[in-house]
Amino acid sequence: MTDSPFPIEASPELAQHAIAEEFAFFSDWSERYQYLIDLGRKLPAFPDDLKTEANRLHGCQSMVWIVPAGDADRLEFAAASDSAIVSGLIYLALRVYSGRSAREILDTDASYIGDIGLAKHLSPTRSNGLAALLAFIKAQAQRAVA
Asked: Which residues carry out catalysis?
């Protein structure tokens, strides 16, 4: 996973602040959804040979694959989805959490979700999928510090 662009910001808090600022530029949710789709296109390529059942994230209506790497000092995640909007949600989660220490991951709540209004504008199935993604990331961090 050496081609990962993450982390972009120096800390999870700065990443969440930057996300909130970026989404504040858009006046309505159709523009925000388009931006989310555009962000999803920025995810690094995910090899087809990793799109296996073993790497599939369950709890999402869409197909999502995620592969963790690293240790307690630095955890990285590569992920992909067959859905454009879900790919954008993955991008935001990786922007906050990938390339961070396990302790940083465990200590960071996903406040950006509420800050940008995602919680109110996602369907229940997408909300469940996002929760499953965040739970997977936290679980990997918990394993790394154990």
From this structure: 60
